[in-house]
Amino acid sequence: RTYVNGIPFASKREANRYTLLLLLERGGYLTNLELQPVYPLEVNGKVVGKYVADFRYLDCTEKGKAEWIVEDCKGVPTPVYKLKKRMMDAQYGITIRET
After folding, report:
1. Which of 27, 36, 84, 92 has the greatest CB tally within 10 Å of its CB?
2. Under DSSP, is residue 20 helix (H, G, I), strand (E, B) or coil?
3. Confidence (pLDDT) at 64
4. Percentage of the chain with pLDDT > 70?
5. Is residue 7 exposed (0-12), middle (13-18) or buried (19+ Cβ within 10 Å)?
């Protein structure tokens, strides 16, 4: 575990990304930075699991346009992660940004 501002992170990669996202937020390039947002995953109206992203934020880099980004810091994508990634796209229309 690695800590930044007293917040535990699963890896140094994730902690470093959080530090960079904080700087980008201070610079006005993004807003609404959230840690560990949870998305229920459903099949036929039944919750079968959940996906917990590392970060979610509003990207403000394009003038006059803002876009929600769901991000995951990945070393090696596991089969379970790959399935959840496909379910996120199918259920929410969200393409997870991997860093």
Report:
1. 84
2. helix
3. 78
4. 100
5. exposed
Size of the chain, expressed as the number of residues it contains: 99
What tokens does 69 get?
Answer: 């980004």
What is the edge-to-edge ordering of all strands in the sheet holding 97-98?
A: 30-35, 55-59, 67-72, 97-98
pLDDT at residue number 63: 80
Residue 32 near residue 44, CB atoms below 8 Å: no
Give the burial class of 21: count Cβ atoms within 10 A of its Cβ; 0-12 exposed, 13-18 middle, 19 or more buried: buried
Residue bearing tokens 């959940």: 50
Q: From 32, 85, 38, 39, select the one nearest 59 (Cα to Cα).
A: 32
Tokens representing 17 are: 């990304």
- Rounded Cα–Cα distance for residues 23 and 39 (Å): 26
Q: HSE of 53 in the Cβ direction (CA atoms, 13 Å)?
A: 25
